[in-house]
């Protein structure tokens, strides 16, 4: 019999993920505060849930959440989830939220008899639609195994990062590194061009030398060398500046609570705050034109 899933949060990411669960043969019940979002999910084969709390959850195998922030996930886990959900129903939170909340919600749900994992994603809306997301999962090994079939229906790679909250930890540490490496790559192109190298020449050398990185070879912030990069379409996202700023905020918050020292992460957050003021709707590689225009210090 098909596994039955309740999907909560049908926004930019959740809509594609929900549709991929349907495509993979799961029976999916879909809920969002937006009626339009629910209607769009129904058009792709999900069943509408009108009211979350009173929904008959006795037949559910799993609940997947894809929500904006920790407070929304806490609201659903602690207040709004179906009252009739049977013990043993697996909770999979795919949202990007703070490590502390993820750990507390995951451990709390598990203690109440609901196995729980945090499973934030790498990859944007295109990957959500194509079913090619990467999942970083925190939770007990047996709960990771339970979650795998659901995650494999929505993604291409699924990694176990350790206990509850470790999925979020992996995600924000990775994205802090991405921010730092993107800023460094932008500074290198800025400097090289000021010194008389054109972007392609610098790319050809550095991408084959020790400065090479994903930010350079997959997502080059200078227009030209990597045709699919947002730099070639006026820095339209891509991965928008506010998203990067959100993840950096979570990283700096987690650094504070864990006593970690992240001076470059702090400075990256400051630069992305400036980017959000000047170019809030642009891709996070917009740092390069901002340097060229003298907008960053
Ligand atoms: P979104 O704002 O488009 O969607 C969130 C949805 O949740 C909305 O439809 C909203 O109505 C719904 N919602 C909010 N509170 C709710 C509640 N209490 N009950 C039911 N529904 C509720 O956001 P998104 O872009 O889909 O992002 C979702 C999560 O994925 C975020 O944590 C984000 O950081 C993460 N993420 C996003 C991207 C991206 O490229 N968009 C990439 C990776 C990770």
UniProtKB/TrEMBL annotation:
GO terms for molecular function: 3-hydroxyisobutyrate dehydrogenase activity; NAD binding; NADP binding. Residues 165-289 form the 3-hydroxyisobutyrate dehydrogenase-like NAD-binding domain. It comes from the Bacteria. It is an enzyme of class 1 (oxidoreductase). Keywords: Branched-chain amino acid catabolism, NAD, Oxidoreductase. Pathway: Amino-acid degradation. Residues 5-162 form the 6-phosphogluconate dehydrogenase NADP-binding domain. GO terms for biological process: branched-chain amino acid catabolic process. The keyword NAD applies. The active site is at 171. Belongs to the HIBADH-related family. This is 3-hydroxyisobutyrate dehydrogenase. It comes from Parvularcula mediterranea.
């Amino acid at each position: 019999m098909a596994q039955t899933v309740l999907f909560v949060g049908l926004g930019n990411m959740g809509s594609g993920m929900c549709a991929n669960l349907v495509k993979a043969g799961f029976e999916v019940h879909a809920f969002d505060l937006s009626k339009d979002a629910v209607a769009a999910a129904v058009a792709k084969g999900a069943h509408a849930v009108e009211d979350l709390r009173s929904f008959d959850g006795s037949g559910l195998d799993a609940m997947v959440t894809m929500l904006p922030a920790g407070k929304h996930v806490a609201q659903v886990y602690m207040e709004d989830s179906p009252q009739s959900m049977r013990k043993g129903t697996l909770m999979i939170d795919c949202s990007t939220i703070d490590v502390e909340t993820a750990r507390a919600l995951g451990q709390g749900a598990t203690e109440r008899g609901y196995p729980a994992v945090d499973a934030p994603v790498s990859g944007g809306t295109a990957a959500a639609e194509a079913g090619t997301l990467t999942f970083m999962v925190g939770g007990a090994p047996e709960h990771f195994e339970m979650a795998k079939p659901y995650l494999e229906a929505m993604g291409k790679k699924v990694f176990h990062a350790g206990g509850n909250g470790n999925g979020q930890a992996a995600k924000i540490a990775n994205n802090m590194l991405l921010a730092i490496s993107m800023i460094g790559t932008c500074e290198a192109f800025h400097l090289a061009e000021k010194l008389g190298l054109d972007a392609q020449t610098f790319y050809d050398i550095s991408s084959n030398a020790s400065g090479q990185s994903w930010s350079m070879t997959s997502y080059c912030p200078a227009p030209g060398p990597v045709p699919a990069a947002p730099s070639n379409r006026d820095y339209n996202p891509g991965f928008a500046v506010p998203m990067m700023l959100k993840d950096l905020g979570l990283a700096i918050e987690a650094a504070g609570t864990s006593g970690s020292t992240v001076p470059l992460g702090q400075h990256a957050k400051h630069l992305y705050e400036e980017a959000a003021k000047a170019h809030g709707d642009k891709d996070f590689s917009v740092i390069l034109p901002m340097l060229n225009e003298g907008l960053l210090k």
